[in-house]
Write a structure and sequence with these properties.
Elements: H1 3-20, H2 22-44, H3 46-55, H4 61-81, H5 85-105, H6 116-132
Helix pairs in contact: 1-6, 2-3, 2-4, 2-6, 3-4, 4-5, 5-6
Length: about 130
């Protein structure tokens, strides 16, 4: 087996598992749409989001706000297409963990950081485990 074939199996193999699993596919698509919207909000309401990121006390808030928007938008698109599901779910799950910690717990923002973000984190864990179980 070549290195290219192995890389292809690791990156794209889980996608087929998600496509076969109706529940995982529906969760991936639904959360993908939510992530696309959440990511686009970071660009449409940039000043408002940047103020929030600064208030969270995160380092480099202007960079992290844009990075979060890009990750959520592109990751959401990939989830809706069910492409690169496992790595995207890991990255977006980590993003939600940071949102829960920095915004929800650290700053006291209940909505969305202690409501939607935990639900999305659970969804990412679910999709990732379903993708990798084959």
């Amino acid at each position: 087996m070549t290195a290219a074939r192995l890389a292809q199996m690791v990156m794209f193999g889980p996608d087929a598992a998600v496509r076969r699993d109706r529940t995982a596919a529906k969760v991936a698509i639904a959360t993908g749409v939510i992530f696309v919207l959440a990511g686009l909000i970071k660009f449409a309401f940039h000043a408002w989001e940047l103020r929030a990121f600064r208030a969270f006390g995160l380092p480099w808030p202007s960079v992290l706000e844009i990075l979060a928007g890009v990750l959520e938008t592109l990751g959401g698109i990939l989830l809706t297409l069910r492409l690169l599901v496992a790595p995207v779910a890991l990255i977006l799950g980590a993003t939600m963990a940071v949102a829960i910690g920095a915004s929800g717990i650290g700053h006291g923002d209940v909505i969305p950081s202690l409501t939607i973000a935990p639900a999305l984190l659970v969804a990412m864990v679910f999709v990732c485990t379903r993708a990798l179980r084959d």
